[in-house]
Amino acid sequence: MAKVLERLKQQRCSHVVFTDCKHDVNVKKIVPLVAKLVDNSPRYHRAESTEYSILVIGVPNVGKSSLINSLRRLHLKKGKATPVGGDPGVTKAVLTRIQVCEKPLMYLVDTPGVLAPKLGDVETGMKLAVCGAIHDHLVGEDIMADYLLYALNRQQQFRYVQRYGLAEACDDIGLVLKHVALAQGRTQKVKVLTGTGNVNMVMLNYPAAAYEFLRDFRAGRLGRVTLD
């Protein structure tokens, strides 16, 4: 977390709040901070305008809609105002203003995720894909799983060893996915044509295992890992 703060500071982002919208950790800090920053900044028609309208932006699947819903839940005791999901592209258009607080009167505007028109390098794109900012099928779950295993090993994050019942850490994605499939029960029935007739065989489903591997990472079940 300290490294992330230092990187953001270098990018002139001096006001940072780490949040967890599933448990509303630190979410209450956002409205007072935003109000303070807006009050201390130059604005037109300050006397006539007593409300705050804030645009929420970020890469796809980063949790923009979840943040808005969390703020409404905490400050207004209201339910969801915008749909959320584990895949990029759930929010497809700029929505109308959504009230998230009464005092001060604050509205947030949810937006579709945005990415730079051109990524700096392949690894940056791979990191975004592994985190769910790019649709899995555009990259391939098997390729993403292979990169994720490399990233976990590089950072000595070996929680996957115990979770999937491996004897030790390894860099063979095929072996890891085999254990994922066995641990998660990811199998598929395959019809095999033989000289004596058709035979149904149960085989490990490696694509499904790769997806489970990625989903466990995104859910934090493989540890608190930052790819950067």
TrEMBL record:
Q: Per the record, what is one GO cellular component?
A: mitochondrion
Segments spanning the bilayer are none
Known InterPro entries for this protein? Answer: GTP-bd, GTP-bd_ortho_bundle_sf, P-loop_NTPase
Q: Where is the G domain?
A: 54-122
The terms under GO molecular function for this entry are:
GTP binding; GTPase activity
Is Amino-acid biosynthesis one of the keywords? no
What are the alphabetically sorted keywords of the record?
GTP-binding, Nucleotide-binding
Tell me the GO BP annotations in alphabetical order: mitochondrial translation
Give the protein's recorded name. GTPase 1-like protein
